[in-house]
Amino acid sequence: MLVYNGGMSDAYEVVIGLEVHAELITQTKMFCACRADFFGAAPNTHVCPVCLGMPGALPVINKEAVAQTIRAGLALNCTIAEDVRFERKNYTYPDLPKGYQITQYELPQAVNGWLEIDTPAGPKRIGITRAHLEEDTGKLVHEHGVSLVDYNRAGVPLLEIVSEPDMRSIEEVHEYLTRLRQLLIYIGASTGDLEKGAMRMEANVSLRPKGSQELGTKVEIKNLNSFRAVRNALAYEIARQERILRAGGQVEQVTLGWLEQEGRTYVQRTKEDAHDYRYFPEPDLPPLHIDRAWVEQLAAELPELPRPRRQRFVQQYGLGVKEADILTADRAVADYFDALVDAVGGAMPAKKVANWVMGDLFRLINESGQAIDTILVTPKKFAQLLKLVAARTINANTASQVLKTMFRTGEDASAIVEREGLAQVRDVAALEGLVDRLLAEHPDEVARYKAGKTQLFGWFVGQVMRQTRGKADPNIVRQLLQQKLQ
Ligand code: ADP
Ligand code: MG
Ligand code: ZN
Q: Which residues surround ligand 3, an ion (CB under 5 A)?
């Protein structure tokens, strides 16, 4: 990946902290019984007096949303608070029907964690300041010169994850976001679907002279809806701050918006007009006490997380870190691979199995657009095919063809091999006959080979393979040719 530092020289160090909002996966909204999966629904159909903020309507805490927050907190190595409190954050905006948002402020659900990322200098921990639970706002739609509001999203459970100012480059930010998203998807807390707005980012960035320990004045860039927007907005902002500092000026502490089309930030708010949200404890909700035993149960139920799983793949299967990373990036892929290696049962080294998955299988999956957990080639079926390869019943080329058919029809490998007569020709006498005839028919090539044109060896092998329609055991063919051409 290209390392882009905003065109910056060595004089300054970049300091970045992120605030990430992730919609949680729950059946219902945060404080009412409305269905939370509003995507694609007609506007204002997933609403009720509670999420519309009608006077007298009472909120009820969604236990599953709390569980999801605790899961995320545990996965992020946070301390899980036993006493949490919901508070009102007061402000007026059309997408906020109540005139306040219910959030955790003084007593958040999870604090003091970290997330490990990869950097060119090795693994690095990014501190997690806090992860707290709140509710999403509605959505404004501006069209035909009017503004419309859709409250389907209002009250959907939202997790806010605040990092320490620990990132030092745009690459680290990208890596952090990628790992965070992967983790939330792994534990089933969020879909991480950026296109549907399930993950939204705010980036805080400042510059300081290299070697300085003090933090510089930061700006906050709001409403970043894609990793690309984060990258572009940060590059723009880093360059802007550097220009100011180089000219001897001072960066003003402001909140910025990002104009994706124009590729520039704009000032939304200065320090002077910072909001006073007048936080106070939500009077309609009791303080929440979290039972230790419940936290322990949620911890025990967490799946193996991507980092340790990657580590295990390296150790147990002898894979490289890159391969292990690819195979653990998606939980369903990692599950498939675990099951496959198990079913192959040592007949083929796991590293070779990995090549089959990342090569042929991924290609077929990508071409068909299917999800790995719904394909017809189950790990058991794939293992049967690989065992035929390991036993040299069929060669690798044939296996590729058989896999294609299996992928389409779901048939067993052995059935296809039998029906289409694909078993490898391993009859040494028969192959020897073919080799003898080939060499007799091509005295020129034999002479050139013996004169030193050793590249012709591959051509000889290819000829025998062609005559057997790809079914000859290439190892036997090679051995025979080596003997005869000496
Ligand atoms: P605010 O009170 O403005 O919300 P916080 O201290 O709560 O600021 O921090 C918000 C986010 O900004 C956090 O992710 C934090 O890591 C980051 N941050 C704080 N100070 C700086 C700084 N000087 N440079 C870059 N990021 C910072
Ligand atoms: Mg903030
Ligand atoms: Zn509702």
A: 32, 34, 48, 50-51
